[in-house]
Each structure stands twice: as structure tokens, then as C-alpha cells.
Design a protein that fits this description.
With about 300 residues, this protein is α/β, with parallel strands linked by helices. The chain folds into two domains: about 1-85 and about 130-220, P-loop containing nucleotide triphosphate hydrolases (Rossmann fold, 3-Layer(aba) Sandwich), CATH 3.40.50; about 225-305, Alpha-Beta Plaits (2-Layer Sandwich). The protein contains ten helices and 14 strands. It has helices spanning about 40-50, 90-100, 105-120, 135-145, 165-180, 190-195, 215-225, 235-240, 270-280, 295-305, and strands at about 1-15, 15-25, 30-35, 55-60, 65, 75-80, 150-155, 185, 200-205, 210-215, 225-230, 245-255, 260-265, 285-290. A six-stranded mixed β-sheet has the order 6-7-8-3-9-10, with helices on both faces. Helix 2 packs across helix 3 (about 105-120), helix 2 (about 90-100) runs parallel beside helix 4 (about 135-145) and helix 8 packs antiparallel against helix 9 (about 270-280). It is elongated.
Length: about 300
């Protein structure tokens, strides 16, 4: 079952097409990666889903009905451009935002104290926001975003400015939120984060959706007859013997004297052919299918679309 459905959405700003007939479906209880180069249209789509702006064409459905302003109370949005009132105390400001989202002061203070303790920032409750580091301020804003337990959470570059330890802390919290029933839209340029936490992705480029699906399915589809051979012997001899059966190769010398050769097998050939030839030329230690990273897929898909 989907929580959000975007159907043929277009948006134009003073002659610039920000979104061009974009459609996607975000399953309930999933972490959905929204990817794309700068200026591709990701932020515009997020603002439409968050009811900040409206599409010029197309429809957005939330929880099986057309999106309305009333649905915003079920959405938590952490934008990339963030801001807190610098002269307010941290706890006072957090309570203020929690009250805006419908929590009583008592419930807000109780839940905020629990979150502050979990993030190791309890001692900052009575300090002014202007004393916070960038990473510390982002922790506060993350807590404010998730506190009212919305059905949909939208995070735009949530790991920006975090050191690896705090980035990992945030990843664990995002996964826990997903496991507890939240649906999450995760906009990022960090492809390693996509592989670690996203269930599905959409890649937007030049205002259009050029790739959508489950992360695992996409990576498997892009493996496309690519294998890594580990062997001992002469790499040049093997390369020459299989040159007509592959489209490209990359050779790496390992520390133990073995050699790794990544090959892309031509459509006219097969893995069985490569193994038969390799067995005759070198001593094979292992053969594994090479699954490309999301970063490789991102670059390849965008480059092919831009041709």
C-alpha cells in the first residue's frame, strides 16, 4: 500500500520547468530515496508533497486521498535550508515548535527530554541556540521534525555537516522510525547512505523521473553480465584470449600476488565461455558477479540521459 502517490506532476517557474510530468509511488513504511543532480527538481517536488507550493499540472495523493492542507499535520519536514531563533534557549525553542505541532507543554517537555538524553545533548537545554555548533543545531531540528510522530517524514540532506559518528546515530534513528511505521522521503547526494538505508529510489534529472524502483532490483539490473575473476597467471595472456568476448575490462594486482580482472561480458558470449577460456590460460581462484554501487548507477544513468 502506498502512502504518497505523485501522478503526472509538472511545475514551471517563470519559464523554467522544474518538474516535467513526474510520477512516482512511495510505499507505506519505506525509506524512499529522492536522488538527482543540483537543480534537477527534487526540492520542488518535496515542496509540492509538503503542500508548500502547488503543481501546475497533475495530482498528489496522500493516504489514498488528494493531498490537502490538513494533511500537513501528518508530515514532518526537515529542509536543507534550516534556521532556528538564535537568541532563544534551546529547550524553550524546542517546546515552542512542539506546541505548534499539537503537543501539550507537558508532553512536549517529557518527550523532548527523552530525545535530548538519547542524543547526548541534555546539558544544552538551557543554553542559547547561538551557542550551538552546526551539527548540534541539526540534532535539535531533527528532534523537532520527528517529535509529533508524523506518518510521513521528509529529510532533505539530513547528514550534511555531521561527523561519521553522529551521521551513524542519525541513520540508526531513521531506521528505527521506519521500523516503527513511519514513511520517509530521503533526499541526498550521498550514495553510500542510499545503499545503507533506502528501500526504493527515484532519480530525477532535468525535471524528469529517469529511474525508479527497489534499490536491490536496480543494482541487480545494472550488474548486466559484469563479473570479477581472481586468478594467478599472466593477465595479458588472459586479456588477449577473451578480448572478443568482452566489452571492457579492468585489471588490479592484489597484495598476495593474485590478480583481479573485472570484465563486462558481451551479449554474444557467456560466463561459461569466459570460464572455459580462463581455465586454459590461468589458475582461477574465484569468480563473483559484480553488483554496481548506487554511485556508479547514478553517474551512468545521468550521463546516458544527458547525451
Amino acid at each position: 500500500m502506498e502512502l504518497v502517490k505523485v501522478e503526472n506532476v509538472s511545475k514551471i517557474f517563470t519559464g523554467h520547468t522544474a518538474l516535467d510530468d513526474v510520477s512516482l509511488t512511495i510505499p507505506q513504511g519505506s525509506i524512499y530515496g529522492l536522488l538527482g543532480p543540483n537543480g534537477a527538481g527534487k526540492t520542488t517536488l518535496i515542496r509540492i508533497i509538503n503542500h508548500i507550493t502547488a503543481p501546475d499540472k497533475g495530482n498528489v495523493y496522500f493516504d489514498n486521498h488528494p493531498l490537502t492542507a490538513d494533511d500537513v499535520k501528518h508530515i514532518g519536514y526537515l529542509p536543507e535550508e534550516r534556521g532556528l531563533y538564535k537568541k532563544m534557549k534551546v529547550g524553550e525553542q524546542a517546546v515552542f515548535f512542539a506546541r505548534l505541532k499539537g503537543l501539550s507543554r507537558r508532553d512536549a517537555v517529557k518527550q523532548l527530554k527523552e530525545w535530548f538524553e538519547r542524543f547526548g545533548i541534555t546539558e544544552w537545554w538551557d543554553k542559547k541556540v547561538e551557542e550551538l555548533s552546526k551539527g548540534m543545531a541539526q540534532k535539535i531540528q531533527f528532534i523537532i521534525t520527528v517529535l509529533h510522530r508524523p506518518k510521513l517524514l521528509i529529510f532533505d540532506e539530513p547528514f550534511s555537516g555531521f561527523d561519521p559518528i553522529n551521521a551513524n546515530l542519525l541513520k540508526e534513528e531513521i531506521l528505527t522510525l521506519r521500523d516503527n511505521g513511519a514513511t520517509i522521503i530521503f533526499s541526498t547526494h550521498n550514495m553510500s547512505s542510499v545503499e545503507e538505508i533506502c528501500d526504493h529510489i527515484t532519480l530525477i534529472n532535468k525535471s524528469r523521473n529517469i529511474l525508479s524502483g527497489k534499490v536491490e532490483d536496480i543494482r541487480n539490473a545494472y550488474s548486466h553480465n559484469r563479473y570479477t575473476l581472481t586468478f594467478t597467471g599472466d593477465a595479458a595472456t588472459l586479456s588477449y584470449a577473451i578480448k572478443d568476448r568482452i566489452t571492457d575490462s579492468q585489471t588490479t594486482l592484489l597484495d598476495n600476488g593474485r590478480i583481479q580482472m573485472a570484465v563486462n561480458i558481451a551479449e554474444s558470449s557467456s560466463l561459461r565461455d569466459i570460464i572455459a577460456i580462463a581455465n586454459d590460460k590461468v589458475a582461477i581462484n574465484s569468480i563473483t558477479e559484480s553488483i554496481p554501487s548506487m554511485n556508479d548507477i547514478f553517474i551512468k544513468t545521468v550521463e546516458e540521459y544527458n547525451k
